[in-house]
Structures are given as C-alpha cells and as structure tokens.
Write a structure and sequence with these properties.
63% of the residues lie in helices and 10% in strands. It has 662 residues and is of the alpha+beta class.
C-alpha cells in the first residue's frame, strides 16, 4: 500500500519549488523566442496596452504545454543533482531505499502535470490559439503602410492589389509602384504605374492617402449598358503628382474569426476526431468527382463536322482504325484546325488537372494537419513523463546541482527532442512520412534513453564517470598515465624502509633477468601474437611488487623521496603481449589484415615503451635506495613487519619452492 512518508514530502517539496521557478524561466524563454516571430506586427502600430496585454496573455496560454517538459527536465536534474552533491542521496541509498522509491512521489506529481498539459492543449489551448490568431490578423490590418512587402503583391487594401519594387524604411517612400484597382466588375478596373509613392493614414484613421509621383493611369471606360460586342474604351493619364484617397478603417477592430475557427489548432481533440470523418468523406467525394471528370477528357471527341462527330460517337473500341480514315479524308486546313483544337483541349485539360491536383493536395494536407494536432496533444503530454525519467536519473548519476551542468544537459536533450519533433511534424505534414510515425519519432527516440538512464541510475552505474572514459581513451590510444603522489597530512604507519629497499633491489634483479631472457626491442612473431594464448606473468608480478612498494613508501614525510616515486612509470602489463584477453578476438583480429596490422604495430610500440619503462624503474630504484639509506639508517626488521608485508611472504614461498625442487 502506498503511504506518504517524510522522505516523499521532503523530495516533493524540493522538486515543487524548483519546478515553479524553472517553469517561469522556460515560459519566459519560449515567449521571447516566439515574440521575435511577430515583433514586426507590434512595432509602430500604435497598439494600446490592453491589446498588448491580450497578445501576451494568449501567447502565454499557448506556450504553457511546451514549457512543462523542459521545466520538468531541468527541475528533476537540479533536484537529484543537489541530493547527490550534498551526499543526501548516498545516505538515502545506505538506508536501503532505492532510487525508484525516492522518485515515487515525483512520479505522481509528473503524471498530474502531464494531465494538466493535456487539459491545456484540449480545452484552453484551442480557444487561446483562436483568439491569438484573430488578434494577430487584426494587428496586420492595422496601419497597412507598414506591412507592404517588397517584390510581391499586397492585398491588404480593399479592392486594391499593390506591388512595390523597393521600400525605404527610413523615409517610408515606395519605389516601382504598380497598383491594380477593381471598383466593380472584372472589366471596371484600373492599372496605375508610378516611379515612387507614399502611403499614409489620415488623422481620423478612416482613410489611406496614397501619394504618387511620375506615373501613368490606365482605366477601362466600359459601361453597364454597352453590349457584349461593343469595343471597350479606356482612358490613359500621365501625371507627375497624384493623390488617391482609399477607404480604410485604421482603428483597431477584431477581424472575422469564421475562417480561423476551421483551423485544426482551434479545435479540441473531440472536435478534431468528429471533423476528421467529414473531412475524409468530403475528400473522397471530391476525389471521385475529379476522377470522373478526368475520364471525360479521354472520351471527348476532337472538333469535327456534325456528320463526322455523330459517326465518331457511334464507334466502338474495335472501330478505332476508322479515326485514321476520317483524318485522312480531311483537307489540309481541316487537319490543322483539328490538330490545334486537340492541342488546345490537351493544354486546358492539363491546366485543369494541375489546379485540381493542388486543390486535392490542400485537402489531404488539411486532413493530415487535423490528425497531427490530435496525436500531438498526447505526445506532448507523454513527453513530460519521458523527460522526468531522463532528468531524474541523470541528476542522480552526475550529482551536480545548481544551474551549471543541469542547464547544459537540459538544453542538449531539448534540442534533440525539438529536432526530431519538428522534423517529424514537417515530414508528416508534407506526406513524406505517415502521420503516426512523424509525430511519434521523438517519443520513440527518447523513451529508450529514459529507460536506459533509469536502469543505470537505479543500479549505481558510473555511465557518466569522466575518469573512466578518460582512462579508456588513454588505454585505447596508448597514452601514458602519470603518478600523482603527494605528502599525506596524517600518517598512521610509517614505511618500513629496510623492507622497501630489499624489495626494490629484488625488483631490479628481476628486471635485469627479464631483459636478458626477452628482447623487447625486436618485433614479435605474429603467429604467437594472434593465434597463441598467453600472458606475461613475470611483468605482472614485477608491476604488483612495485606498486606495493610505492604504496608503502607513500607514507613517508621526505619530499625528495616522494618526488622520486612520482618518477616511476605506470607500466602496461598486457598491451605488449597480445591485443585482447580473449583468444577468439585475437584470432579474428589477426585474420582481418588492416585491423591486425594496426594492433601489431601498436603492440610493437608498447614493447619499446615497456623496455624504456623497465630501464626507468631500475634507474629510479637505485636513487630511491640511496635516499632511503640517507634518511633511514639500517634497523632490525621485526616479525610483525614481515607479517604485514605480503611481498615478503611471497618471497618466502618462492624460496621454499626452489629448495624443494633442489
């Protein structure tokens, strides 16, 4: 039975305080990033404070679900990082409480936050998106003189399309102006060309004053009472300066939200699932209608005479060769007319199919957009739980609190999530991937990472131990490690200098005997390296004896002796014999020539390095023995000293073995 304990309250309180702080930080960062996209809509529009307050309010409501995962990731990292850095997590584990038990209260809180995230997306988010889009559209329609882009037609003015080649942001002047005005029907339109112009709002904000310089005005003069066969008169006017007054309400008025309400972002999950059936039914109906119309293009007869056309309609598939005979009976002009008519019909059919293809693409994209929004509400809520199971174990492993390392890790994880999420959404929206795959790819990538980090943290793994990776890297590339022996502040047992001197002399003798039996400077036999097992036990014994001696002499107070011990090299005891410990790995490496050649040359390098290390050990040991003789005169060795030195016991056993053999 789940019972609330003091530890659960303690961890939940720490996490809750950090979550509130990090949530507001993440919310502020996301709002600033989102604000840069619409900063041009706000500057210079003369918007009142209540309009700006609504803008930021709706923006904040939209971004709350996106701030939840990042806030959970950062707060969980800092919480368990602080517990690990202050050794509180170590004390908790020492009391027999596993990491999962420590996290159980936070798991409940995170599940609640995930539910709140889904509620925001399903209930509050659609209304916030709808209100924000309506407010943004209203901002764009206010002060249109600031919105006119360069190089494209601007249709924000009533019954007017305006093209500007270049715009001076300092003076507000427009260059290369082209205007299409349509006051009534399609025929009642005017085309105005001007070298430069300026668009300004009047004082009452009810009209726009368009001032033009050095241009021409072309306008149709067609009247409603003219017949269809009458010629269309037009007038042409050349001007050096002209002012045009356009009707436009420059005050801030909310735009019509009827078109915005059909957007998928402005719908709840229930509305999306309800509308998807209607959208799919409409798409299928339109698709079948387009298919039937496409079949008519293939069955449409060319432009023939009445008798030939009647005869052509009566033909069957078996009478197709008759078409050639009909075409042969035509004169040259008739053949040319038929060919032109067929080409014109083919071009019209191609244009019609291209238009229908674009419309069908829009319809299917609308369907995918609704499905993306429906799935995205669940994946974003699920990401809160996934980010917790990434952040909490990482904090327990790294054991670094504060806003340093946790912020860096959080940014890296969130960038990976954002790349997969945004890329999957775009690929699904453009129908390159299926919607389910595109929207779930970020979850599929991060969920195994969460399971892996949780497993490693629960088993006290050192997966992020930098020293372990540094040691592996140095061993892989054969980099030398240096000793770092310092003088101890508190020494419990002084070194037994007499025994240490004897051991160093014995090690020196073993090294000289080893050098006489083995020629390390010569390359080894490749067959023995890759296909014969075996370790160099002599070097292992020499290295063990040397480390025992150095460990005992590390209790000395003499600075010169400590400096001499730092001169001892750290010997690699296996790299000079074979690449790997396992025989089958050595065999495979030897059979693959490029890989085997690399490891063979690496082993030759380690043999030369071992040869230098052994000579260095002999040289340093002589200096250490001399220094011991200076600082510690010969003293009798007691039985307790002998029992405390496993090295002496080994020597005694070796001596007994030699005597028994003799």
């Amino acid at each position: 039975m789940f019972r609330i304990k003091k530890l659960d309250i303690f961890i939940a309180k720490q996490f809750g305080l950090l979550f509130v702080g990090t949530f507001f930080i993440c919310q502020f960062v996301l709002m600033m990033q989102f604000l840069w996209r619409y900063v041009d809509e706000l500057i210079g529009k003369g918007l009142t404070l209540d309009v700006l307050a609504q803008f930021f309010w709706y923006m904040g409501l939209m971004l709350i679900p996106q701030a939840f995962p990042l806030a959970i990731l950062l707060s969980s990292l800092i919480t368990f990082g602080n517990l690990g850095e202050s050794s509180e997590l170590t004390a908790i584990k020492a009391a027999g409480i596993s990491l999962m038990k420590c996290m159980r209260s936070l798991i409940v809180l995170v599940v609640v936050v995930a539910g709140v995230s889904f509620y925001f997306q399903d209930v509050i988010g659609p209304e916030a998106n709808k209100s924000f889009a309506q407010l943004l559209l209203s901002m764009k329609q206010k002060s249109p003189e600031l919105e006119i882009p360069e190089g494209i037609f601007y249709d924000g003015l009533p019954n007017t399309n305006l093209y500007v080649q270049k715009k001076d942001m300092d003076t507000g002047k427009l260059y290369g102006v082209m205007i299409y005005r349509q006051s009534g029907s399609y025929e009642d339109q005017a085309i105005i060309l001007a070298d430069s112009g300026m668009l300004q709002s009047t004082a009452e904000k009810k009209h726009l004053l368009l001032t033009l310089w050095s241009g021409e005005w072309f306008e149709n003069m067609r009247s409603q009472d003219l017949g269809n066969a009458a010629e269309v008169p037009y007038r042409r006017e050349t001007f050096t300066h002209k002012q045009i007054l356009l009707d436009f309400d420059g005050g801030f008025n909310l735009a019509d939200a009827s078109g915005i309400a059909s957007s998928a972002k402005a719908k709840s999950n229930a509305q999306i699932l309800h509308d998807l059936d209607s959208i799919r039914l409409a798409n299928d109906s339109i698709g079948r209608q387009f298919y039937r119309e496409a079949l008519t293009y293939a069955m449409a007869p060319p432009a023939l005479s009445a008798s030939d056309s009647t005869r052509l309609k009566a033909l069957t598939a078996a009478d197709v060769p008759v078409l050639d005979s009909l075409f042969d009976k035509m004169s040259g002009d008739e053949r040319r007319d038929v060919t032109k008519s067929a080409a014109r019909q083919a071009q019209n059919a191609l244009s019609d199919l291209a238009m229908k293809a674009d419309y069908a693409k829009y319809l299917h994209r609308n369907e995918r957009t609704h499905l993306i929004e429906a799935i995205g509400k669940y994946t974003l809520a699920l990401s809160c739980i996934i980010f917790f199971f990434i952040g909490a174990p990482l904090g327990a492993i790294i054991r670094k609190g504060g806003l340093g390392v946790p912020v860096i890790i959080s940014v890296i994880v969130f960038i990976v999530y954002y790349i997969f999420e945004n890329s999957g959404m775009r690929m699904a929206r453009d129908d390159n991937w299926t919607v389910w795959f595109g929207k779930s790819i970020s979850t599929v990538v991060l969920a195994p990472l969460a399971v892996f980090f949780t497993y490693k943290a629960n088993n006290d793994s050192t997966v992020f131990n930098i020293d372990a990776y540094r040691l592996l890297f140095m061993r892989m590339f054969g980099l030398r490690m240096k000793r770092n022996i310092t003088r101890k502040e508190v020494i419990i047992d002084d070194p037994v200098y007499a025994l240490d001197s004897y051991r160093l002399l014995h090690i020196t003798e073993d090294i000289r005997q080893y050098n006489a039996e083995h020629r390390l400077i010569t390359p080894p036999n490749p067959i023995k390296v890759f296909f014969h097992p075996g370790d160099d036990q002599t070097i292992e014994q020499i290295a063990d004896k040397l480390e025992q001696t150095i460990d005992d002499l590390g209790n000395t107070k003499d600075h010169q002796l400590i400096s001499l011990m730092n001169s001892y090299p750290v010997m690699a005891t296996h790299a000079h014999t074979r690449p790997f410990r396992r025989k089958w790995l050595n065999v495979i490496t030897g059979l693959v020539l490029p890989v085997g050649l690399f490891f063979y040359l690496r082993m030759c390098r380690f043999r030369l390095r071992l040869h230098k290390d052994l000579n260095k050990v002999v040289e340093t040991s002589e200096l250490v023995v001399r220094r011991i003789a200076e600082i510690a005169p010969p003293a009798p060795v007691t039985l307790d000293d002998v029992e405390q030195m496993p090295f002496i016991a080994d020597l005694a056993r070796e001596a007994e073995a030699k005597e028994s053999e003799q």
